[in-house]
Amino acid sequence: MPWLKFPPLNGYFHGLKALVAKSEHTPEYPNPAHQAPLGEPPLNQDVPTPKLYNPYSPDSNAEICYLDKNNTIPAPSLYAYEGVPQYMPDPSIGSHSIFGIRDDVCFDRFGRYGPYGLGYKLVDGGSDVGVDTESSGSEVVWEKTGQINYGQIDWAEVQDRCATANKHRFAEPDPDTDMLKLVDGKKGRIAIVIRLYTGFPWTQLVVLNFRAMINELVLKSGGEYHVHFLLHVKDNNLPIWSDDVSVQQLLDSNVPPEFHGLVTLWSEAQMELFYPGKFEDPIGKPPINNPAMRGVHGVFRSAHLPLQVFALQHPEYEHFWNWEMDMRYLGNWYELFDRLGSWADKQPRKLLWERNERYYIPSHHGTWENFTEAVEQYTKDSGKPGVFGPVKFDEGKQLRFEQQGESVMPSSCVDDPENPECGVGEAADLITLNPIFDVHGSAWVFANDATAYGKTPPRRCAIITASRLSRRLLLAMHEEVWRHHHTMFSEMFPPSVAFHHGFKAVYAPHPVYLDRAWDPLGSAVDKVFNGGRDHSTSAVGSPFDLRNEHNHKGATWYFNSEFAGLLWRRWLGYAQRDTRGKDGHRKGGGKILGGKRAEESEESSGRMCLRSFLVHPIKFEAPDEKKL
Questions:
Q1: Into how many domains does the chain fold?
Q2: Cβ distance 251 to 260 under 8 Å?
Q3: Could you read off the pLDDT of 228-258 as tens digits, one per residue?
Q4: Residue range 611-625: average pLDDT?
Q5: Exposure winner among 45, 49, 105, 187, fewest CB in 10 A?
Q6: Which residue blocks in 466-540 are alpha helix, DSSP H?
Q7: Phi, psi angle pair for 144, to nearest 5°
Q8: Is 48 inside any structural domain?
Q9: Which of 36, 8, 117, 94 is nearest to 612 (CA)?
Q10: 56 vs 37, 69, 77, 206, 218, CA distance in Å?
Q11: Which tens digit of pLDDT belongs to each residue from 337-364?
């Protein structure tokens, strides 16, 4: 693993005493003027006061949403500090600025989670979390609201009241057809569907994360979003659709009471009823083409099936974010999802699939405009035309709307495919958080898990199933499964259906950080992360090749990341063993760093404060959870 020879970056771990304005900030990496690591930053005598953080656009039609029935406790706001700690690295992949996400502020644990129960006791309606960490100055986050008592809250009732109060703002389905009527002035609502399973080890930190999500996405937005838990019941013998007592027992055993009303149950046996009939083996025979050696209705190979059914049962939503329990966000959830959605909707269709298959690396590509020009040149040099519209192939079958002569392409694109405005302003049917790559020749382990397509169909994939899917894409996927008995591996099916039928799919290059100073600057990261065909993530040389995936271990966003968990737990205030030495990751090696004593020492820069970014996977948070 050659990347382990690069020096570890420690600028992430500086705290509140090292804050500087963005204009005075020197990133430890990537930085052409200074070679990492940069050492310790100068410390300030005084720590500034955090300020209320408001990423919401004013809407005179929006009604305020409250936590209580008497409308006396409005949803709280999180707090942020102006500036960032000196030497905090910049993203190695992706960007804040292209989305309009602020990168001139940072979040500490109390400003981020204090409004939702961090830092005060469970008996007072808090969480008991954070009370044993360094907390100087944290009381400011409760000055306006007090420490809110979440002890008896029912989030389903709270969300429903918010949705009812703001019903006038949103499109509703036609009662006769269940089709969503998108009329001028009315917004389409978005569901956040969190994938839960029986036996999941809930903790108070997990609870804090979802309280934050509901407050920031649902209540503070006036009901633009609605949070749901889709609970996978692993025991196929349980009568989850016919016995209320069994359902209640499942909820009591697997979900905290405050979230009970948000849960929809499903099982693999239930999916066999929704999608009956014979499904042919994938291309060839297992284990080469079904390395999971599992059934086609199972969650591992077909996690999209229950989401398709959920969309059928909830015609009130225009889009659905598919989300997982082990994902966290440093920042405001609404700012993330809103800005990603707005940006994706603005992307033109021309060379969109070609941009989608590449990581955007600012230190190598420069501005986003430079990146788009580079992609155009890569495409010309390849001698292949860019992908545009539905992709035809011998084994492809039409969906009903296509048989009726309809198309998902905007009329401006049909009339003039070269129109640079083609697709601009068109809502994205799929937003992914990793590149959408061509699996053919990529050596990605599940590349050939495509059921009932005959010979190898053209396939696209985005690793990690976290994504936003439109209702019309989910209905197209549903028809492919029930009618044609087509399906593919979970991370491959949504992008491939979009690819086959001309839906608008967009990879959103959100900020991703690396734990080491890769060198040469820019080109080293690009060579590995865009090491596939024509400087992309596709085909031979893909970073998603099983032999190459180790390169993601030092990134903040990938299923095998080790750095994401280390950074998150340090930010929460817990001491961690940091094994990122010259010899790489060594079990039992490294030093114990961080924690209360370290953050309270006179030489310390204080508790950590980080810019907003996603981290995944977070398999445990507090040190005593590691054994769970």
A1: 1
A2: yes
A3: 999 999 999 998 988 999 999 999 999 999 9
A4: 94
A5: 45
A6: 471-484, 493-501, 523-529
A7: -85, -35
A8: no
A9: 94
A10: 37, 24, 11, 25, 12
A11: 999 999 999 999 999 999 999 999 999 9
- Can you give the residue range of the structural domain that contains 214? 155-350+388-507
Model pLDDT for residues 387-426, shown as the tens digit of each residue: 998 999 988 999 999 999 999 999 888 888 888 899 999 9
Residue 319: closest CA among 390, 248, 226:
226
385 DSSP 8-state letter: P
In this prediction, residue 627 carries a pLDDT of: 55
Beta-carbon contacts of 249 under 8 Å, excluding residues fewer than 6 positions away, are none
Is 441 contained in some domain? Answer: yes
Q: Is residue 407 part of a domain?
A: yes
**HEC per residue, 262-284:** HEEEECHHHHHHHCCCCCCCECC
- CB 335 within 8 Å of CB 523: no
Cα dist. 281→105, 433, 440, 451 in Å?
51, 30, 19, 6
Q: Check: CB of residue 102 under 8 Å from CB of residue 96.
A: yes
* Residue keyed to tokens 């003027």: 33
Residue 563 CA to residue 6 CA, distance in Å, equals 14
Name the 3-class secondary structure at 616.
strand
**pLDDT tens per residue, range 536-590:** 999 999 999 999 999 999 999 999 999 999 999 999 999 999 988 665 555 557 8
The helix or strand, by DSSP H or E, that contains position 521, with its residue range, turns out to be none
Does the residue 380 lie in any domain?
no
